[in-house]
Amino acid sequence: MSLKIENFICVIGYYLLNLFAFFFGIRFHGKYMAVLMGIDYGTKRIGVALSDREGTMAFPLEVLEHDGAAIDRIKHLVREREVKKIIVGLPLNLDGSPTDATAGAREFAKTLNR
After folding, report:
1. What is the four-CA torsion angle of 93, 18, 89, 79, rounded to 10 degrees?
2. In whole angstroms, what is the distance from residue 27 CA to residue 13 CA?
């Protein structure tokens, strides 16, 4: 069975977003009431996933090519889908030390914040 890298990125984003939705979601009377966006940063592709408004499920949305249009596309999706928070996954080694991609993910998050 062959698994495309795009599918793998979306699956990882799906699980990360469910985890972060639990910790960082906005609660209102015991329920999450905001759409969260999970970003799986990569040097070639960027995985994007969205949660439901209750914060119980996350769904893969798109895999973007990492180019100049990716930031604009993400900002468009934030407006279109009424996203309240964006969570950018931080790539770390199993021992918690930074990887080659860690600095890139941090810089990407800063760029999104502008």
Report:
1. 170
2. 22
